[in-house]
Amino acid sequence: MKSIAIIGSTGSIGKTSLKIYLENKKNFNLKCLAANSNLKKLLNQKKKYNPTYSFLLNKNITNKNLINKDQFINKFKKKKIDFIISGLGGYEAININFDLLKVCKNLLIANKETIICGGEIFLKNAKKNKCNVVPIDSEHHCIDFFYKNFFKKKEIKEIFIIASGGPFYNKRLIYNESIKKVINHPNWKMGREISVNSSTFANKVLEIFEAKILFKLRNNQIKIRVEQNSLIHAIIKLNNNFLIPIIHAPNMEIPIKNSLGLENNFNLNLEYMKLDITNPSVFKFPIIKIGFDILRMNNHAAMIFFTVINERLVNMYLNKQIKYGEIVKILIKTFRNKYFLKKITVKNINDINYVINFAKKFNL
């Protein structure tokens, strides 16, 4: 029986992970559930799933039935947990994910901000702590699975990160678009923030940053394409120009189950499958151009800066402080003056937090 913990258990990835756990209880010993600040939901989960420990990341909320984060880390430093699923969102999850590397053998992670902001520093810490980092975002999970099971890195010519195109790919973009329409993703049930990012293609920009870091790709090896049914998640192009699409049903359970060594039962009917792969317009979705410009900078600070500024703008839009079109407009304006970021070097977790705090306070 393998030990497992779910950090971010009250969020969408956490709930999916708990569903999988419930279906496979005989295989796992649930060591811990943790949430950011939702005490009521966490206590309900504690009662229902009976983990050994539970904690909240928010230090301002205490409860006699919970331990704190530091106690959790100290309890498992010697005898590590086999699998920790980290479903926390946003760059606020970065520090806890660095801590989780110390207490688990396999960290299943869906948090783009940790991979991007943590960069090589995060991966080196994982190696130092003998922790295997397993991406469970569908695109990177597919690439990771391919690398581990099939071809060697030197045989790969290009990687295509595949987007769904979001709700407006074949529609006219409206500057003052409603939140309801923006977050109405055609294929996936996702949180509000990631749905906005999908509509602007900021999500794909974050994913090309992730791919570069996780798989140590050259800038010219990374491409973006669109397949609107969300059936193709990545395409691998070999040196002999063979193209290998990786296809699975658009369901988050699949990469999580695969990472836990479980079988998934989501079959696809090839008889009715229609696939249409297109190249997204950088004129309609200019955030894509910003992303590849940042890649060419080869500047870790610029990736962090984009991640935080974009998140700030999305939250401003969701709080009705700016219009939908202003997300892209402000990002373009901000990165016209991006070269000041060349002066910032990122060598450790303190530098990462410095750039994040700098971006949080940056005058938009």
Describe the structure.
- Strands 3-2-1-4-5-6 form a 6-stranded parallel sheet, with helices on both faces.
- It contains 14 helices and 11 strands.
- It is an alpha/beta fold and 364 residues long.
- It has 2 domains: 134 residues, Rossmann fold; 222 residues, no CATH class.
What general outline do the C-alpha atoms trace? globular
Share of β-strand residues: 15-25%
Quaternary state reads single chain
The end-to-end distance, rounded to whole angstroms, is: 51 Å
Record the strand order, biggest sheet: 3-2-1-4-5-6
H and E order: EHEHEHEHEHEHEHHHEEEHEHHHH
How would you summarize this macromolecular structure in one to three sentences?
By secondary structure, this protein is of the alpha/beta class.
Q: How is the topology of this model organized?
A:
Layout: E1 2-7, H1 12-23, E2 28-35, H2 39-49, E3 53-56, H3 69-75, E4 81-86, H4 94-100, E5 104-109, H5 112-128, E6 132-135, H6 138-149, E7 156-163, H7 179-182, H8 192-200, H9 202-215, E8 222-227, E9 232-238, E10 243-247, H10 253-259, E11 277-278, H11 287-297, H12 300-318, H13 324-336, H14 349-361
Parallel strand pairs: 1-2, 1-4, 2-3, 4-5, 5-6, 7-8
Antiparallel strand pairs: 7-9, 8-11, 9-10
Helix pairs in contact: 4-5, 5-9, 5-12, 8-12, 9-11, 12-13, 12-14
